[in-house]
Amino acid sequence: MRATAIAQPNIALIKYWGKRDSTRNLPAVGSISITLRDLFTKMSVQLDAELASDVLYVNDERDDGMLPRISACLDEVIGRSRMRARVDSVCNFPIAAGLASSASAFAATTLAAAGAADLHLDTQRLASLAGRASGSAARSLYGGFVELANKGNDIAMTVLCDADSWPLSVVVAVTESVPKAVGSSEAMEISRKTSPFYANWVERQPEDLDVARNAILERDFRQLAIIAEHNCLKMHSVMWASRPPTMFWNAATMACLQTVRKLQGDGCSVFFTIDAGPQVKAVCLPGDAETVHAALAATPGVTEVLVSALGAAARLVDPR
Ligand code: PMV
């Protein structure tokens, strides 16, 4: 009746932005991501017939704000007539600040919930269930380079390359660690309804996916860099042009982009990407990680720099 799972966040290189069905939380576009190794969320789910309602602890503190989404995720995996649960979460990086904490949290919750209820679900099924809680969470069920594609009324997952087959480093420049003002689901709906660039974003996504997939299969860092930066800036342009505009960046975000441009000019193999928050993720070849780390740490407004290699899939761990 108890299971614990660990999942790592993933960073999208070709982004998911927009839903084709918000009730089932199905994405409007496919996406490609890399799963990290060194940042993690650990979730324990304890089903307990004595409990009258679910309860959630995040890093040992009760968290009623996040509880409804966790309860909904448990309902999806186990069923609505399930026992209530105590859920304990431990996370070693800032939560809800655009560092993909919801991806690792819901991937781990889905896996732990299935484990606690003794359900034997395959990874594709777990990914579909995790994706209902948070679109990006589906990708954290897998390690390495992961593609999420739309397939009928579901999603289909493919591992393009595992973490060891193309080792890259991700250097995260944290510029603010407060939770974001607007959640990604709400911001996506604003984009869909009001951004004049939204239709073009959805229509052109298959081209970006093709270029990135080929770059990954050929281990072509330069091609991947070009398409990932382009796709990221397009996603933010969609948001900036919506009404009201969604602007996750701050001055330090922009300063980090300039740092990355300077590093590229100096011959570093590095590119940037930014999600629904002001943090900048610099993806680089491992040999350049130290230089990228030092340059981002010295960038005005950067409060913390985290480094991670690429990692493996979400997994159940002991103690159960
Ligand atoms: O999974 P969500 O609902 O938190 O949305 C994630 C959206 C982005 O991080 C901006 C892009 C992505 O593909 O991860």
SSE arrangement:
Layout: E1 2-7, E2 10-14, E3 19-21, E4 26-27, E5 31-35, E6 41-47, E7 55-58, E8 61-62, H1 67-78, E9 85-91, H2 101-116, H3 123-133, E10 145-151, E11 154-161, E12 169-174, H4 184-194, H5 198-217, H6 221-240, H7 251-265, E13 270-273, E14 280-284, H8 289-297, E15 304-309, E16 315-317
Parallel strand pairs: 7-9
Antiparallel strand pairs: 1-6, 1-16, 2-5, 3-4, 5-10, 6-9, 7-8, 10-11, 12-14, 12-15, 13-14
Helix pairs in contact: 1-2, 1-3, 2-3, 5-6, 7-8
User: pLDDT below 50 for ≥5 consecutive residues: which ranges?
Assistant: none
Estimated helix fraction: 25-40%
| Top CATH class of the largest domain | Alpha Beta
How big is the Rg? 19 Å
- Which molecules other than protein and nucleic acid are bound? (3R)-3-hydroxy-3-methyl-5-(phosphonooxy)pentanoic acid
The third-level CATH topology of the largest domain is Ribosomal Protein S5, domain 2
Q: Strand share of the residues?
A: 25-35%
Strand pairing plus helix content: what structural class?
alpha+beta
Spatial strand arrangement across the major sheet: 8-7-9-6-1-16
User: In CATH terms, what is the architecture of the largest domain?
Assistant: 2-Layer Sandwich
How many β-strands, per DSSP?
A: 16
Give the biggest sheet: 6 strands, mixed
- H/I helix tally: 8
Distance between the termini: 9 Å
- Write down the overall geometry: globular
How many structural domains? Answer: 2
Order of helices and strands: EEEEEEEEHEHHEEEHHHHEEHEE
Overall residue-averaged pLDDT value: 95
